[in-house]
Amino acid sequence: MTALIPFSPLALALFLLQDDSIPASPVPVGSPGSALLKTVLDSGPVAQTVLVILLIFSVFSWAIMLSKWRSFSRARKEGTRFLRAFRKSGRLSEIASVAEQFQPSPLVPVFIEINDEYQRQSGGRGLPRNPPALERAALTASSEALTNMEQRMTWLATIAGAAPFIGLFGTVMGIMDAFHGLGTSGAATLRTVAPGISAALITTAAGLFVAIPALIGYNQLTAQLRDFAARMDDFGRELLNAIENAAMLTPSAQPQSQPVPQMPAAPPLEDPLAQMRRRTF
Asked: Exposed/middle/buried for 208, CB within 10 Å: 0-12, 13-18, 19+?
């Protein structure tokens, strides 16, 4: 009775690495690029379908990243210009009239929302009757602006997480086809199974090639979004402080029969902007 050899990966590797009795003729080695292209062309329909899907994912993720980097760069530039104009001006009405010129900046909707709420409460004069409402308006505007900036970001996270598994699926199917061909051919050698396995591993490499840039881009863009969120919160608090300080510095009205004492020039009633040093964007 023949003894049964227990199955193990080492035994399988030794079995596949055994050489044929007839020596094979030397195969000329081409360039890595041509070998890779030949491997892709020789792969099965499942592997080619997986590669097409990964190619679409790669193009889509790069389009999202380039678009976001361009829009974030423009938003940062316009935010710097808007903050410079905001701090140089002395009236809310002046800033409100030119705010649309800096529209890509996420600071603009925060300013517009706070200014509109302030105008509704006090007509742009004096202390606001309901300061918490101004704070809620600032938070709402910041949340909406951040939501608009986050559009299509989830696709990057999805591609970064799904691409390796899609590539692994192609690899598993390719290895199954290779071993099926090995069993039907009857020639259990490395030269018989190696082309199929190498073609199957291409999909795993393609999945990593797609997932790694998408993951890096997602992390970098998320960090920029956190920075924009912090800057919008800082700007909202800065604007609210400027409104309250300017309103407190405004002299109260006095009866006409009494002479108005001479006082140092104070900012006008609509001047909530020019009394403080503020952070740069």
From this structure: middle
pLDDT in tens, 104-150: 899 999 999 998 888 888 877 778 888 888 889 999 999 999 999 99
Helices (H), 89-189: 92-98, 107-122, 131-149, 153-185
In contact, 143 and 233? CB cutoff 8 Å: no
Which phi and psi angles does 136 have, rounded to 5°? -65, -35
Rounded (5°) CA angle 224-228-233: 150
The domains of the chain are located at 45-249
Q: Say yes or no to pLDDT of 177 above 80.
A: no
Rounded to 5°, angle at Cα 210 from 206 and 212: 115
Question: Which residue, chain included where needed, has tokens 């591609």?
Answer: 159
User: Whole-model pTM?
Assistant: 0.71
Contact assessment for residue 111 and residue 236, using Cβ atoms and an 8 Å cutoff = no
